[in-house]
Amino acid sequence: MTFILITGSIMAISIFLIYRLCRFFNIEMKWTSLVLCAVMAFIVNGMAITMSPFLDRGHYLRLGILVITAAAVVTIFNERMLRREEALAGNCTVLPTEQLPVEEEPPAEDILPAAMQEPVAEISPSEPVVPEGTAQAEQPAAVQEIPPEEKSAAPQKNNEAEKAVEEAKLAAQAIAEKEAKLAAEKAEKEAQAIAEAKARKEAKERAEQKKREAAARKKAEAEAKAKAAAEAKIRAEAEEKARQELAAKRQAHEQELKQELASMDSLDAILDFAYEAKDAQPKDAIFAYHEAISRYGDDDYTPFLVIELGNLYKEQANYSGAIAAYKQALTMPIIAKNDAMCQEFTKNIHYLGTVQDILAKHAALSTPFPQIPGDIMQEIETEFQAHSGSAK
């Protein structure tokens, strides 16, 4: 819209300057020619816009041809209008219904006496009346009939001029509508381009924001993981240190316990010690049973010591220790030569293995044997019976 207003203003000023220059140089310029000049200016401007968007040599050449053509059209049209006006002015006559202006009568002394003595001719109704004192020779020039051809040609020429002006107006309106449409399309494209650029910018900003958030989250996770690993390491080191300290204490305690058990000179004294320590210090009782089995491995009561040791391990949920005790006992001569005792110990080893498997399946491996729930015990018995039947 701004472009159209600026262009129209420049054209109006240019046409006014053309009019003033024509007046200054005494060049006759019809107003219809000025209108045609404005129309041609709009046409040239519109064609210059649509010809090419680049100001190259071909563009300027085409623009010059258009300007020269438009100037020639306006000049020819103006010349034609002037000639037609001159023709109409030269052939203009007074119609029978019109009356010519009365000319001034010459002085009385200039009138010839002979003219005054001529009789007045009778005027027929069809002849025009000539004022008195006008020469007879001037009468044909004063009143003339307009030829029918010229009468019909003058309205036709006026119609052609009006038609040309109307066509020029329609052409100017079409050019204005086309320019308005082009301006609207250009504005719409610019708005669409701005919207797309804004959308791309927002999408880019969102992507960068997500990237920053992901990086921050990854960094936080890495820091949390590193912190957890450091805490786990500290805990592991503390636990390992505590375990080493406990193992050292236990080792020192077992050395003292071994010296105390070494001072006992009979199996009964060791068993009495183990029985007293079973509830308060089960580990001391287990150590005492191991010491008794080691020192009195040939005694007939040794198999029962192994069973007691296995029961102590089961009460402490140390099923691996019980299995190891039974397996070690099978290597002892007093048990190896007793088939019934070997079968019993082997059966105990299989049963404890079944207990380990079922408790591990239920994530209850740390459950002491006396505290195993009834449904799990039923499952253990069923599994053990099935295993024993398949073994047979």
Assign an overall shape. Answer: rod-shaped
Structural class comes to mainly alpha
Work out the radius of gyration.
67 Å
What CATH calls the topology of the domain at 264-391 is Serine Threonine Protein Phosphatase 5, Tetratricopeptide repeat
Assign the CATH class of the domain at 264-391. Mainly Alpha
Q: Cα distance, first to last residue?
A: 106 Å
CATH architecture of the domain at 264-391: Alpha Horseshoe
Short description:
The protein has 392 residues and is mainly alpha-helical.
List keywords for this structure.
mainly alpha, 392 residues, Serine Threonine Protein Phosphatase 5, Tetratricopeptide repeat
Structural features, described:
This protein has 392 residues and is mainly α. Among the domains are: 1-87, no CATH class; 264-391, Serine Threonine Protein Phosphatase 5, Tetratricopeptide repeat (Alpha Horseshoe). 77% of the residues lie in helices and 0% in strands. It has helices spanning 2-24, 31-51, 57-90, 113-117, 139-142, 148-262, 267-280, 282-295, 302-315, 319-329, 333-336, 339-361, 374-391. Helix 6 (148-262) packs across helix 8. It is rod-shaped. InterPro entries: TPR-like_helical_dom_sf. This is Colicin import membrane protein. It comes from Selenomonas ruminantium. Keywords: Membrane, Transmembrane, Transmembrane helix.
Task: Map the helices and strands.
Blueprint: H1 2-24, H2 31-51, H3 57-90, H4 113-117, H5 139-142, H6 148-262, H7 267-280, H8 282-295, H9 302-315, H10 319-329, H11 333-336, H12 339-361, H13 374-391
